Structures are given as C-alpha cells and as structure tokens.
Amino acid sequence: xxxxxxxxxxxxxxxxxxxxxxxxxxxxxxxxxxxxxxxxxxxxxxxxxxxxxxxxxxxxxxxxxxxxxxxxxxxxxxxxxxxxxxxxxxxxxxxxxxxxxxxxxxxxxxxxxxxxxxxxxxxxxxxxxxxxxxxxxxxxxxxxxxxxxxxxxxxxxxxxxxxxxxxxxxxxxxxxxxxxxxxxxxxxxxxxxxxxxxxxxxxxxxxxxxxxxxxxx
Length: 217
What we know:
Helix content: 55-70%
CATH topology of the largest domain: Four Helix Bundle (Hemerythrin (Met), subunit A)
Mean pLDDT: 85
Shape: elongated
Number of strands: 2
Strand order of the largest sheet: 1-2
Structural class: mainly alpha
Number of domains: 2
Low-confidence stretches: none
CATH superfamily of the largest domain: GntR ligand-binding domain-like
CATH architecture of the largest domain: Up-down Bundle
Number of helices: 10
Radius of gyration: 19 Å
CATH class of the largest domain: Mainly Alpha
C-alpha cells in the first residue's frame, strides 16, 4: 500500500528528531518545516499533532513547536519497564517459550560499542534500543517490541540529546551499558539464564544511579 503524504511527512520529521537534527530548545513552526521539507502546511500540521500525541513535541505559547523535555522520572520509569521486559523475555526463553537470535543481538551491540568508542552518542543512543528490542523479539508476547519502541522514542529525543550530543558532557565511567549487556549476552550463550537475569538486575541498579546522578544513561 502506498503511503499517504501525511505519513511520509510524519516519518521525515520524526527521523529528524531521532537523529538529533532537531534539538531541544530549538523552536520550529509549520511554516519553517514547510519551507525546509518542501511539503505543504496541512500534512505538516497532521504530523505535528501525531508527534504531540506521542509526547515527542509540545506547543509553547509565543515560541511555536519545541521538543518535549523528558523528565528524569520518566527516563527512570521507561528504563525500569525495559529491564523488566528483558527479564521477562529471559525467563520465557529459559522456560522454553522462545529462543534468542544471539548472533544478531551481538552484532547490534558491537555497532553500539563502536558508536560509543567514537563518542557518536546520537547514533549510540539510537542503537541500544535496537539491542533491547532484538532481545525482546524472543518473547512470545508480540506487543513487547512495538510498545517499547514507542516508549523509548519519548525519551531518546529529549533531554538526553541536550546532554549527550556533546561528547564533552560524557562522564568518565568504570562501567557502561554496553559492558553490562556484553556480560548478559555471554551468559545467554552459556544458557546460564539465572546469571543473565542477575546481570539485568545489576544493570537496573546501575541505570537508576546514572539517571538520578547525571540525568541520563
């Protein structure tokens, strides 16, 4: 089925947000987006309403449209949901209800590692949710991936970019998300699911500390 103009414009603007081309604090309008994209204001208005519904943008009086600033609590809540669903998926696989595509998960994590080493935090922050969703794909619950994808976009585009798009703001850490998930994958390969779950629970504690102390992961 051919996509409507409204869908094409919605995907284009959302892509601009999720790749960091539209930044927190940067005001834009239907008119400015129409000029930059070459589309009329009607499909742009429809796209912005959808993005507002998804909590990605908000309308500010006398300013126009801006990216919505995700709160620390929201980031912590969504991270907790993610980890709980990863634990659920791991338990389901341990019970024989699914199987992991471990090589695919490892490939995605390797790509995330490369971005992090290069201090390319925008691509890194977009890649890690792909790792999580590749893990969740092993669950018999078909709604996990699509629901998490919607939730993650609410925080990936807001205050995280404000801090992490600038590599100088990255704290020096002895632990990292990619280290936790490499250990997790190693346990999956060994089919040591209890230790894999333990690793995820340790990661939850680490993530909470990072979010509360730095305001991001």
